[in-house]
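Comment thread on ticket #2218

A.B. wrote:
> Attaching the input chain for the structure job we discussed in standup.
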Amino acid sequence: MRSQTLKENKDFRRLYYKGQSRASSCLVTYVSKRKAKGCRYGITTSKKTGNAVERNRSRRVIRAAYRLLEDRINGNYDFVFVARSKTSKVKMQRVLCEMEKQFKALGVINEND
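C.D. wrote:
> Ran it. Output below, let me know if you need it in another format.
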């Protein structure tokens, strides 16, 4: 099942303040459990991360990495991914590896998967 995207500012703020987070050099992940069925995700890239081309590449890379891990998620969660300035300069496999580590640390996917 494909995840929906977060669009409302209140959802992003709720995750920033009440969600659990993990950070690495190229990605920050906020996670919160939800009662409704399915997962939702949102991606933020600030102007500090670079020009429009770099911000769009960051979002594209994060979205691709998330889609590869989407089927392994256990339960219903909301995610917010925050791109860092390094995100647009690394390969998608690096972001995928970082995201997988963060998901395991947050208990979103199983360790042995």
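A.B. wrote:
> Thanks. Noting for the ticket: The chain has a mean pLDDT of 94.
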